[in-house]
Amino acid sequence: MITLLTDFGDFYPGVMKGVILSINPNAKIVDITHNVEPQNVLQGAFLLYHSYRYFKSAIHVAVVDPGVGSKRRALAVFTKNHVFIAPDNGICYQSAAKDGIKKIFRIDESISSLVGELSYTFHGRDVFSPAAALISLQRYDFLEEIKEMEKLDIYDFKIGEKIKCKVVYVDKFGNLITNFPKEFVKAKGYICRGVKFPLVRTYSEVEVGETLALINSFNTLELSVRNGSAAELLGIKRGNVEIELEVFL
Amino acid sequence: MITLLTDFGDFYPGVMKGVILSINPNAKIVDITHNVEPQNVLQGAFLLYHSYRYFKSAIHVAVVDPGVGSKRRALAVFTKNHVFIAPDNGICYQSAAKDGIKKIFRIDESISSLVGELSYTFHGRDVFSPAAALISLQRYDFLEEIKEMEKLDIYDFKIGEKIKCKVVYVDKFGNLITNFPKEFVKAKGYICRGVKFPLVRTYSEVEVGETLALINSFNTLELSVRNGSAAELLGIKRGNVEIELEVFL
Amino acid sequence: MITLLTDFGDFYPGVMKGVILSINPNAKIVDITHNVEPQNVLQGAFLLYHSYRYFKSAIHVAVVDPGVGSKRRALAVFTKNHVFIAPDNGICYQSAAKDGIKKIFRIDESISSLVGELSYTFHGRDVFSPAAALISLQRYDFLEEIKEMEKLDIYDFKIGEKIKCKVVYVDKFGNLITNFPKEFVKAKGYICRGVKFPLVRTYSEVEVGETLALINSFNTLELSVRNGSAAELLGIKRGNVEIELEVFL
What we know:
Chain A is an alpha+beta fold. The first copy, chain A, is built from five helices and 15 strands.
């Protein structure tokens, strides 16, 4: 099983599937998302962390790669139950650490010869896809063990007079998914940009059109409007936006 | 075969697939759509009705679920050739009735323990996906038979001096798909919001940029602009909008 | 293996998959894209040309079909390694020619009886999907050999005082993908609509927010803004737009 998570949007993922299936025609490929916001590595890391574990065991290709074509390394990280294939920019660090890192490898980019010439712009096709396909066939000869990888903390927040955290993801409903974890949510509600969000358990506890805060399926704090869009209400249209929250008790 | 139809947009469906494939690694999963408009149960019902029958036999997971986390029931409806798994809000009623309802079951939400803790916001992951996976393995021990389910009429229209019907779906081309059935389309054309739509058989019968009405692949009346957008022309950007049609003969 | 490339957007492709899998339950279906711009045959042809070859051997269904319901023919083109199934409007010509055309067939539209009645608007469902499914089962009795097919040149550009070429595709990042081929890119940069785009090898060679031109993964010239959108900068929001490029040396 190979999963794909990228910021590529449309078309490019279809090409990746062609590459994978040409090397391993029996590969089972599952799309997680291809709509990570452009170059938003933090969002990619957050969404990977909250999807990989719903697979028992899989090869996860996660490509949000502002450094494509530069010297940044391409990684294959083997963990207890999974393999993560990604650029070395922190996108898979917290997922790998959570599952338990066993070995970190650098991918030899010359495997792009299986596809064609190595492009400067689309290593999703030329490097990461053939790497996933080869690993799915238990071929590892293109991997060189290394010691370290880039780290990235998806749960970087501060509690002081106000809570400083981030909206990491805005879903299709306009819900604002923050990186403020469940364990620290102890108030009766939160004020963000002057708007009150009373804490409830689920959307249907308030009237249509009213604001609410809840613990979402990511186990973080979410700001929402029932059958409406908190994203529009607060003018936060994409992720990786710092917010300040005031508590009310 | 398991199909998925939701209003979840991006990312969340990938998690559902992880859950399903962790329980039944051999499941074949097909996406119908994940872009039903938020909370638009009628649109979900309409699109399910016009897709399920193109599968010979399948388990259809249909989740547009404004009542998630409340007391609304989760259903598994067994019909002649299919199984429908959905919240009890009418979304699968007409599809199930059309195929011939054999038995209606309530899903025991405690199957969410296969996934983790039951969330208050994402039963697509916690309840409906494991239910589909278990049923695909012919495991039924979490089902309790019930007598009734919620009903919803996707063909609710009125013929009087004017025709009162609904735009139920706006496709990517900007075509306005109504719920006014083929059998009742007998005019030379229709006037909607002051604009004339002459009835033809297919788009290419009028000039580029001109309006037209036709019987579409849903077997309902559709208002369209050749190589243009009727949605923009009439200012109808989403489904579940009541319209009035005047006939011209 | 069957691939799908259409301008259908959402929902309709799910129905196509139902049709295919009802005829051949073992078919493996891969989406290339369903977001070709409405009726943009040139873009469909360009994207098909740059995806089909990453599959070793497949049946490619490519439907951008402004002439649906008219007299235009439905084709199945057998090439050295692939089969292309498409309306006869040039969309698969250059791909088929590149791989080496062996035989061109007209599809008998009466195969729609496998699905239901032949609609006037959705031959993706009624004709092209059953054709792909039957061919994947090596059933060919609905094919009639013909001599010719429509042609379309995706690399139609002119070099004079200025270069006249086309933006054929705008990707999710806002990169402007032109049809001006790598072999002719010899300048230090290009000026388009008054904006300078210096030629580099990859995005990370310029500062965030700066313009650049490069040879992309399509092996054509691309105009880009690092971590930004050239589409917004130049006001080019969709493909099939003629542009003029001035060279700087």
